[in-house]
Amino acid sequence: MVIQECHQITNRLFILLQSDEAVDRDKLITQINHLLDEREKLLPNVCAPETDYERELADEIIKWNQVIEKKLTDIKNDVRKKILLTAEKKKSSNKYTNPYGEMESKDGMFYDKRN
User: Fold this and answer.
1) For residue 85, what are the CA distances in angstroms to 2, 49, 51, 80, 106?
2) Which of 35, 54, 87, 102 could be bridged to 13 by S-S, CB 3.0 to 4.6 A?
3) Model pTM score
């Protein structure tokens, strides 16, 4: 049954996002994308649950999906924060190494006629 496969993939995704292990973020995102791609292929084939067992699976998928969406939003916000922090550090580092690099003079150059 397609709903069972979708349930298994959603379960793996749920468990992956619940683990608090210090894993490489790129590796984690790659695994998440792989599981989401697998699940996306199955979703068009999922039809309305007909039996009580299928309804239970569907309800569990819905509950897990709410937690998954929150975790994915948290990961996205964390990545966005790190990107902004890295850009700020780069800008700060550039100011330190070249403090006059971003100065703009609107009136051009000062010309002293006395010499």
Assistant:
1) 43, 46, 51, 9, 31
2) 35
3) 0.72
pLDDT in tens, 26-47: 888 899 999 999 999 988 888 8
2-18 helix and 25-42 helix, angle to the nearest 10 degrees: 160
Q: Can you tell me the distance from the alpha carbon of 84 to that of 109, in angstroms, rounded to the nearest whole number?
A: 35
Q: Is residue 96 part of a domain?
A: no
Please give the Cα distance from 7 to 12 (Å, whole number).
9
Q: Identify whether 100 is part of a domain.
A: no
- Cα–Cα distance for residue pair 13/75, rounded to 1 Å: 14
Summarised one tens digit per residue, pLDDT across range 77-111 is 999 999 999 988 888 887 777 767 666 665 566 66
